[in-house]
Design goal:
The chain is an alpha+beta fold. The chain has three domains: 192 residues, Sulfite Reductase Hemoprotein, domain 1, CATH 3.30.413; 81 residues, Sulfite Reductase Hemoprotein,Domain 2 (Sulfite Reductase Hemoprotein, domain 2); 128 residues, 2-Layer Sandwich (Sulfite Reductase Hemoprotein, domain 1), CATH 3.30.413. The protein has 18 helices and 20 strands. Strands 1-2-5-4-13 form a five-stranded antiparallel sheet. The longest helix is centred in the middle third of the chain and has 19 residues. The protein is globular and about 70 Å long. The model has no long low-confidence stretch (mean pLDDT 96). The structure holds siroheme (SRM) and iron/sulfur cluster (SF4). The site of iron/sulfur cluster (SF4) has 13 residues, from loops. The site of iron/sulfur cluster has 13 residues, from loops.
Length: 552
């Protein structure tokens, strides 16, 4: 049960003087690599997290050394779209100030780890030079807006995609703190920081928006607090179905927490009404969300407490118009379509597999170097997918051979062809060593677990099945494991709950099937289920649907 006392973060927000807090003082303090306690929460609103290297925690504690503090910086890239010169800059910034790995996240942006306190400003200033920022990439505000990534999805992809940017700008906090603190800009005396949306209390919790263009649900639209489903009729974008109350996090042992897919509550026609509805969903969450128990503060809990009808009524009242009846839509896929695809204008797009979103020079394939060379041609746009992959996009027909030859020379084409479908459809969250909440490994472990699962897939003739497999190091759900056909959720070192039965399209959550399994347990449970599936599945029946129909 929640008590009614506001959580301590509420006070930190309201007394932060527009998210400034004592950040300037924290930065100047050379005695520690950390920021002051109260600034810990505030830096999130500026797109960064204070972390420490958990691999060396014990060793340093034994030597009576402070933790090895560093910062993770996450960019705000609505719709996951980056120009070639921005990628070149990100490559060098990663090399100059971070671990060097560019991490593509499950919400279509990138983040860098291991940035020391004195390197935060140069990092953000170098990003700013190529028009990139990290404002509101974290914190109790609207986060990076995700949008179906593949431009060949529809001739009006650009029109839908533009909403990601419009919504992101509409919902940015008004404070200029980011520019003053990190970019050394002068305080603008005339500038009015009054923020009608966030006021001085911001939202009770993080808020996420995703936009899907059916039939593709690559953004897992129903896992967002607010999902927009584009409705295209007679080749025209007529508006969006509005879905509210998605969210995945649970807490082990806390039965009040649950994963939930968003409920579609109606349709809005046209840009003005859609943006108004989006805005007012946030004001409802601002005014009704739980500000005492952060575990129960996401919109999904607000919605369930209010009831869907009451929520819709409140929204219509705030909007000044009624939502129209939900329009029919159909999702058929969620995974990325690898390899070359042409769009309606004849431009080419190459979707490239990036294991768990980690762009780095691997032993077999120097991916990061190859991408730099590709970016330096200036002939492409980079697009990040919510499956942690990369689309080399908008390649003119005449430029395709140049890009293809680079992909060939670095062995990327060959590698992409040889990778199994389960691996290609897998996602793992960051987890150890940087995530303070990780109970178990995820991105450092899933690749080897899949190598152990591949012989089982072979044995049961399931190699061609693109089973969606996702792993997280804790129940927060950053790789959306509860919306996977096979979900593995860390419970402790080397132990995972096994969830089964999500569908391939992202419209059904899975169910916890076994608890606290080690690797041997995971392999033996899946061996049995794979065998049953292979022998008894109906024609065209996907793994998750079979498990849901017969086993759960
Ligand atoms: Fe997440 C917290 C990483 C997508 C639910 N998430 C964290 C933190 C910041 C840990 C922390 O609070 O200190 C992780 C940083 C790890 C690190 O070292 O980098 C972290 N989350 C990630 C990323 C990078 C995972 C990845 O490997 O790609 C994803 C960044 C997305 C982005 O660009 O914004 C990421 N996180 C998600 C998703 C998936 C999504 O949004 O589609 C979820 C589940 C959906 C949802 O929000 O319900 C998710 N992250 C959480 C939660 C649980 C929130 C809640 O409702 O309780 C936390 C913990 C928290 O907020 O207290 C969390
Ligand atoms: Fe960390 Fe848990 Fe998110 Fe993984 S799911 S990144 S372990 S908070």
């Amino acid at each position: 049960m929640s008590n009614s006392k506001p959580s301590p973060i509420e006070k930190i927000k309201t007394s932060s003087k527009g998210l400034r807090g004592t950040l300037q003082e924290s930065l100047q303090d050379e005695i520690t690599g950390a920021v002051r306690e109260q600034d810990h929460a505030l830096i999130k609103f500026h797109g960064m997290y204070e972390q420490d290297d958990r691999d060396v925690r014990e060793e340093r504690a034994a030597k009576k050394l402070d933790k090895l503090y560093s910062f993770m910086i996450r960019l705000r890239i609505p719709g996951g779209y980056m120009k070639a010169d921005q990628w070149v800059a990100a490559h060098h910034i990663a090399g100059n100030y971070s671990t060097g790995v560019v991490k593509i996240t499950t919400r279509q942006t990138i983040q860098l780890h291991g940035i020391l306190k004195h390197q935060i400003k140069p990092t953000l200033q170098d990003f700013n030079a190529v028009h990139l920022d990290s404002i509101a990439a974290c914190g109790d505000v609207n986060r990076n807006v995700a949008c179906t990534s593949h431009p060949s999805e529809s001739p009006i992809h650009e029109e839908v995609h533009a909403y990601a940017d419009k919504i992101s700008r509409l919902l940015l906090p008004k404070t200029r703190a980011f520019y003053e603190i990190w970019l050394d800009e002068e305080k603008l005396v005339e500038y009015d920081e009054t923020d009608p949306l966030y006021q001085d209390r911001y939202l009770p919790r993080k808020f996420k928006i995703g936009i899907a263009i059916p039939p593709n649900n690559d953004v897992d639209v129903l896992t967002n607090d607010l999902g927009l489903i584009a409705i295209i009729e007679n080749g025209k974008l007529t508006g969006f179905n509005i879905a509210v109350g998605g969210g995945l996090s649970t807490t082990h042992g806390n039965p009040d927490t649950y994963a939930r897919l968003a409920t579609v509550i109606g349709f809005t026609a046209g840009e003005e009404k859609t943006l108004k509805a989006v805005y007012e969903v946030l004001t409802i969450q601002r005014d009704f969300g739980n500000r005492s128990d952060r575990k129960l503060a996401r919109l999904k809990y607000t919605l369930d407490k209010m009831g869907i009808d009451a929520f819709r009524k409140e929204l219509e009242q705030r909007c000044g118009f009624e939502l129209e009846e939900t329009k029919p839509y159909n999702f058929t896929a969620r995974t990325d379509r690898y390899g070359w695809q042409a769009d309606h204008r004849g431009n080419w797009h190459y979707t490239l597999f990036v294991e768990n979103g980690r762009v780095t020079d691997e032993v077999d394939v120097p991916l990061k170097t190859a991408l730099l060379e590709i970016a330096e041609t200036g002939k492409i746009i980079f697009r990040f997918t919510s499956n942690q992959n990369l689309i080399l996009s908008e390649i003119q027909p005449d430029d395709k051979p140049v890009i293809e030859s680079i992909l060939q020379r670095y062995g990327i084409l060959e590698r992409d062809e040889s990778i199994g479908l389960m691996r290609k459809n897998s996602i793992a969250c960051v987890a150890l060593p940087t995530c303070p909440l990780a109970l178990a490994e995820a991105q450092r472990y899933l690749p080897s677990l899949i190598s152990s699962l591949e012989p089982l897939l072979e044995k049961h003739q399931l190699k061609e099945e693109g089973i969606i497999t996702r792993m997280t190091g804790c129940p927060n759900g950053c790789a959306r494991p509860y919306a996977a056909e096979i979900g593995l959720v860390g419970t402790g070192p080397g132990r995972y709950n096994l969830h089964l039965g999500g569908d391939r399209e992202g419209t059904r959550l899975n169910t916890r099937y076994r608890e606290q399994l080690d690797e041997a347990g995971i392999l033996s449970e899946l061996d049995i289920v794979f065998d049953q599936y292979n022998k008894n599945k109906k024609e065209q029946e996907n793994f998750g649907d079979y498990v849901q129909r017969t086993i759960l």
